[in-house]
Amino acid sequence: MWRLIKDGPGDGALNMATDRAILAACDEGKAPPTLRLYGWKEPTLTVGYSQNSNRDIDLDRCQSLGIPVIDRPTGGRALLHDKELTYSLVAPIPHPQFPSSLRASFKVISGALLFSLDQLGIQNTAMAEVRKTSANGRSPSCFSSLNHCEIIVNNKKLIGSAQRRKSRSFLQHGSLWMDCDRALMNSLFRFDLPKMRKANLEILARHTVSLNQLLEREVRFDEVELAFCAGFMRALPGEWERGKLSAYEMNLRDLYLSQLLSQKDE
Fold first, then answer.
1. Looking only at Cα atoms, what is the longest distance across the chain?
2. Which of 53, 80, 58 lies closest to 181, judged by CA?
3. In contact, 212 and 179? CB cutoff 8 Å
4. Mind listing the pLDDT tens digit for each residue in 184-212?
5. Sign of CA dihedral 39, 40, 45, 50
6. How far, in whole angstroms, is CA 249 from its chain's centroid?
7. Closest C-alpha among 170, 19, 176, 2 to residue 102
């Protein structure tokens, strides 16, 4: 059985604490396989769990603009979340619908993303076959690089994803840009030289695309959410039920949320 949670736009720290709680509960055998779909109430920068915020992020600028900086439970590099739909999929290891390896399970989920985009009428979609890094070397930006099986349209990155694996479960989540402010996002990162900042912005302009750009209209959150429900159910057939967090998961979420907020205040 699959559990579907539709949370809508929410607070950034709460979003990350919720994903982490579902992963922990699933790892303990106390939560079913879960697809969670949500958005963001305000622009929020998330940072990969192994990324150095002090090195890569202009924390003073983020603070001056009122943009929260939150640690993410998955890896990868920093991403500014705003007008987007975020998916979070948690499943036990092993699971009959997923191969055992990270890359193979990533490919299954990418197939669900392609089905979801098909529901929206997006054509010429594909999974990236090779990993490509930004031309300016180490970039702190998630969308400045392309990983295996991430979703591209006309050779432009549309959905960025990352996965975290524990001993008995995994979490993959990713972002579909409905719209984006590339200049704002690029201004929140630290670069060794001004020319590197300029080069990174050019990469974002040339090699990324938003849903609004593709469809040439302003897309509603609810229609993207509906398409993702249909796409994942098609890719992962079985019994699906609309659900919510258990009491155990809510207690974990509150614990992780307090940890995130205490780190923010330090």
1. 53
2. 80
3. yes
4. 999 999 999 999 999 999 989 998 999 99
5. negative
6. 20
7. 170
Distances (CA, A) of 126 to 148, 151, 192, 233: 11, 6, 33, 19
Tokens of 22: 């579902």
| CA gap 188, 44 in Å, rounded | 11
Residue 228 near residue 236, CB atoms below 8 Å: no
The question of whether 26 is a catalytic residue gets the answer no
User: Which tokens belong to 20?
Assistant: 């982490």
Dihedral pair phi/psi, residue 165, rounded to 5°: -115, 135
State the first-to-last Cα distance of the chain, in angstroms, to the nearest integer: 41
226 burial type by CB count under 10 A (0-12 exposed, 13-18 middle, 19+ buried): middle
Q: What letter does residue 238 receive in the DSSP assignment?
A: S
**Residues constituting the chain:** 266
Q: What is the pLDDT of residues 31-40, one digit of tens each?
A: 999 999 999 9
Find the Cα–Cα–Cα–Cα dihedral 8, 12, 14, 19, rounded to 10°. 80
Cα dihedral sign, 236-241-246-252: positive
- Cβ atoms of 16 and 46 closer than 8 Å: yes
Please give the model's pTM, rounded to 2 decimal places: 0.93
Say which of 26, 62, 142, 229 is annotated catalytic: 142
